[in-house]
Amino acid sequence: MKAVVCTRYGPPEVLRVEERETPVPRENEVRIRIRATAVTSSDCYVRGLNLSPAYRLMARLALGWNAPRQPVLGMVLSGEVDAVGPDARSLEVGEPVFGFNRHRFGTYAQYVCWPEDGLLAPRPANLGDVEAAAIPYGGLLALHFLRKAGVREGQSVLIYGASGAVGTSAVQLARHLGAEVTGVCGPANVDLVASLGATTVIDYTGEDFTNRAARYDLILDAVGKRKSAAALRRCRDLLAPGGACVSVDDGTPKLRREDLVLLGELATNGEIRPVIDRTYALDDIVEAHRYVDNGHKRGNVVIAVP
After folding, report:
1. Most exposed among 140, 151, 193, 278, judged by the fewest C-beta atoms under 10 Å?
2. How does pLDDT run across 55-70, given as a tens digit for each residue?
3. Which structural domain range is residue 115 located in?
């Protein structure tokens, strides 16, 4: 099979397309023929180890010292079940699925074997693979943090970084939960964020949102503390009584299969929609990583797998 291998930690150029042996599903595993994957910010962090010295040391111990032990990166997929291993009964060959696995990786390839009881769910029937691959990463993370904050109908939510993968999902999901949403983004993405359901959109290059008189039940930092630290330094002054400021860097998100199923249902019903900036071919993975490294993508960058 064709796969992308991370030869060492470093810039996008450390990625190389090569032929590898097609995996065979083991007990309680299914093999998935991948049709599309996504280049996430997490993929780029793993590839480049662009972390603080302390986190970089922990990452090397967990992932591999000089290069990832699992050389095929990628956490997101959409495709169909190609084979089932012994005792795997919940999924059938030919069943279209989409999913997310931040521990096993392996989706920068034509095939991968994952546990059948992992984060896999039926692909939304109204979406193709490229569209479906744009849902799990941002959708699952956004849903986790919104649920952690207890967002409910009538609350006021501000999302900083509303045009990224997590941000575009958070805007739509917060609206689905009944909240009034304020999105903060760059000038090129104001119309996009408004179209996703944000009542108010603030261009951070033209206005400091911390100077507003509004108060929020939740301020969600959807870009991570390395980028948001300066902007959110005074964010607690904007919180309503009992309000919270939460970052995607806070803790280890608990991601659940039932949430992936829910995202699929919401997408099927048209209550959320995938946001795709660019689509690349698997052979162009280096260029795709360069683009994501720039830090200005709108929604998701998807890889079509031949």
Report:
1. 278
2. 788 889 989 899 999 9
3. 2-135+274-304
